[in-house]
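Records of this kind hold a single protein each, on a pair of labelled lines. With that in mind, the following record should read easily:
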Amino acid sequence: MIRLKKIFFTLILIINFPLVSNSQGIPGSFADLAEKLMPSVVNISTTQTVVTRSNPFPNFQFPPGSPFEDMFKEFGTPQERQSSALGSGFIIDEKGIVVTNNHVIEGAEDIVVQVNGDKEFKAKVIGADPLSDIAVLQIETKEKFTPVKFGDSDKARIGDWVIAIGNPFGFGGTVTSGIISARNRSIGLSRYEDYIQTDASINSGNSGGPLFDMKGDVIGINTAILGRSGNVGIGFSIPSNSAKIVIDQLIKFGETKRGWLGVRIQDVTKEIADVEKLDKPRGALVASVAKNSPSDKAGVKSGDIILEFNGEAIEEMKELPIIVARTEVGKKVKVKIWRNKKEIVKTITLGRLETSEDFKVTEKIETKKELVVENLKISVREITKEDIKTRNLPNQTTGVVITQIEKDSPLLNSIEVNSIIVEAQKKRVKTIDDLNQAVKKVLNSNQKTILLVIYNSQNQRRYIGVKLN
């Protein structure tokens, strides 16, 4: 009998041990961790002066699209008003160095950092990078602060517990928890995207705040949310490993110094892989090579497929720009290329992206893009950061600006020039193509009515229903 009991007890241990050893379990409380980290998380408020012009003829309105409308606006009385914005950040050095998002402080004339919910200090910008949406500030005081340290975001796994601390809607010192929902997300907000997706509640004002792992290390910078209505359980954070490279450069140089190859690339499709006798679709196809660029000097050609860069395999095209950008300028790297159905290796000395002519030309082209939406009979261009700044729109606004409305446009009597279309059929408009696709979908349906959400020329958010022909 005693022997049977021993055998039974041993079986229970064998069965239960793997379950206990492989399970992290739900944390009993985040209180100790939150208490430790709160002094290092700051609330950021900014102010800037916005100049608007009042209508010189307030009792008379020109028809939408009239050439006199813009002309008489120029004669309006300039009026200045103070615009404010809120965000979050975190301290990484006891001397008061703070990390936040670039869009939190962009265009700010005054920056105030609140620490521990009561002490307020002025801060100045050490360096900012719009491409990665990261900024570094210096608190202007000789006081010492409690810093946090960066963790290894590459070790963060889907399903790991995380907590976010920040300043949502101005409610400072707010702690939320969740898990890592996904990795390597790209949502079209910035040039270099490799976001951590989390369901920890993130809202307006959380931007720039930290995403912590259970050790209390920063593994992400909370940057974006999905949807304009606030938290829907999908937030995005810049991984700490990518962010730290930019932050170190901003602290050291006041600007970024990214590696540059000098190629334009595209995805390798199954059809291209078949034609090139590549085992599977992988790598980045070189569409063109900039003249006198590092790649041009090394002998890279259009039609080459880059399979490996500096020892790192390129599985998808989007991986290459991120890897190149974080590589030191001037470094000699080995690049494995697929050409004429065989592998070759080129040695390339990296240039600097920010000083390249190719980069400057690309930036100019992107800001001038303007197209016609045939079925609406309007001309539009994609919204720019300057639009968001001058019109005092929410930082994460996307959409297209109406530049011209034809006389036979179905929108003629509903929308005016300079209105911004931000949603179509309840879906966010990020590009001109998004709007075109929404219009085509409506025209192919029985409904024939499109629902648009716009900011009008007075920056008022409006819903517009338009019957299409």
Summary: The two ends are 88 Å apart (CA to CA).
